[in-house]
């Protein structure tokens, strides 16, 4: 009986949490006519809600199992009456009959478990045992449409789902009215302690106070929070610097504040006071100055992935190794299962001469659970076990002894790595790795050619992710033009410092003697860069907002031509985008330029149709130019095969390990056709 009572209490607690929550799923796009684009979920709620530890968990209705996790970020903006919405792109949302999505808060509580095209019961993940609620409408619709809530109110139950209409990603929906509106107000008052002085290097903060008054009734448990803007006065990414628990009618008071050590020098900072019950955003204070006495130098990668940090040809023979860093924002955990390490010079769609340094085959990280959740800032050293380099540290295959963010693993470890000596078919797109047999223990596929070679990382889909190269004219710089030396590197090594890993100026080369540092930071700046990624204390994370953050750069064939599309979640001083095309990954031509928004902190969408594509494999890359002329190129290359023969037969279906599977197998399927083309399908 006691266990039954506990079970009932748990159910009641979950039900109460669901009904009382003031955050909800507000917009869904999972399917459109043709190839699915711009898929994602919008979360709405009171302005000022920090979603940085929330999650969206998609579920497969066939079996009730979750198939991915999206970690949320950002603070809900005020788009009217103290409410707003944030859009989260999620590629590969399944198309129903039925499928669903769970919204999970910081405590792991499922706030909503919604489904489309039917209901089902979750059999795993955070919603295990719960039955989904069917929203009652479904897609596909046209490109640019979504399912949205409309109506009047201030909680999920006040609104009604509508069939596909023009999307409003990242903002409250056109047919949605927040009511009641304007009942509560907060006026932010004077700030004491300014000008503030902080020191990032020594983690020195500064203190003060901010006063506020309010009107209206604030409920029991309400917390007033002081938020700090950026140096321009923008609250696109506000920082909480102090709180005060206070409720009742027209409360007011003084909040003690702490200015974080990492703030940059600026004279345009302001503070606003917000509340959470009800959600209310206050006015801004007068501007004040923050002085940064010792700025922190590292800038962190905006995207998660596996990056090259160092490599060595060894002092003699084949005493070679690679060192990679698991990169991302501080405190992140990264899934690196299936990442590919190759040296094919950034492309395999051209038959290279024997002097180009291309070795047959590649190494791939296995699906071992160890690789599913690696902390950013970790170093992974992979070395030639057949010709040991004396500078290598002891093996540390699982980072448990000691636990020091370091993995040192011989290349022939068959639990964690798999190696093939087959070269992918040079007639298929660069982002496709044909099914091969992983049965080798040879270092040869990773062997470095002294006169010149390329080192690269490809993500689990096979798409180029990161690479560097060196040598003579026969060696290119790859998709990112990352050729860091034109010299032979026999008896030499190369290493990264910090900052932009796609900038060759941040790389160095030299003799192995005195420069090899496998398993250790390459220099002081590299150490600071690694430590910044390993720092899990958010107030000390020196995260820099990138001028333009591009997401979802992708493309597809349509009747009119090749459709290329991308989105930005932030733009600062952005002038225009340039789309370029190539058929050999060497010679690039401009397809089109498109005017950027300039400055934005909302999700914006862009698209271009290339009417003049070639009847071959077409590669596309994207470049952004600021108002001051500074340019930056997005790391992803889009591949569209316009030479594909439509009259073809399906010859086989494989999983990502190259094993034959049936058409009913869940997950990623690789379809191989009679003309040699390959398609990746998620089921």
Separation, N- and C-terminal Cα atoms: 43 Å
**Regions with little confidence, pLDDT below 50 for 5+ residues:** 1-20, 348-357, 538-546
Residue-averaged pLDDT:
82
Content-based structural category: mainly beta
Estimate what percentage of residues fall within beta strands.
Answer: 35-45%
Count every helix, treating DSSP H or I runs of 4 or more residues as helices: 2
Give the number of DSSP strands: 49
Structure description:
- The chain is mainly β and 683 residues long.
- Helix content is 4%, strand content 40%.
- Strands 1, 2, 6, 10, 11 and 12 form a six-stranded mixed β-sheet that branches. Strands 3, 4, 5, 7, 8 and 9 form a six-stranded mixed β-sheet that branches. The protein has a six-stranded mixed β-sheet with strand order 32-31-26-25-37-38, with helices on one face.
- A hairpin with an 8-residue loop joins strand 25 and strand 26 (321-327).
- The longest helix is centred in the N-terminal third of the chain and has 19 residues, at 2-20.
- The two termini are 43 Å apart.
- Mean pLDDT is 82; it is low at 1-20, 348-357 and 538-546.
List the helices and strands and how they pair.
Elements lengths: L1 H19 L3 E6 L10 E7 L8 E6 L4 E2 L3 E2 L11 E7 L9 E6 L5 E7 L16 E2 L10 E9 L5 E8 L9 E3 L6 E8 L3 E3 L7 E10 L1 E2 L4 E6 L10 E7 L2 E2 L3 E7 L6 E4 L1 E6 L2 E6 L3 E5 L12 E8 L8 E7 L5 E2 L5 E3 L19 E4 L8 E2 L3 E5 L22 E5 L6 E4 L31 E7 L5 E8 L11 E3 L6 E5 L10 E5 L12 H11 L13 E10 L4 E10 L2 E9 L6 E7 L8 E7 L6 E10 L4 E3 L4 E4 L8 E5 L13 E6 L4 E5 L1
Parallel strand pairs: 8-9, 10-12, 14-24, 31-32, 35-36
Antiparallel strand pairs: 1-2, 1-10, 2-6, 3-4, 3-5, 3-7, 7-8, 10-11, 13-15, 15-20, 16-19, 17-18, 17-22, 21-24, 22-23, 25-26, 25-37, 26-31, 27-30, 28-29, 28-34, 29-33, 34-35, 37-38, 39-40, 40-43, 41-42, 41-44, 44-45, 44-46, 47-48, 48-49
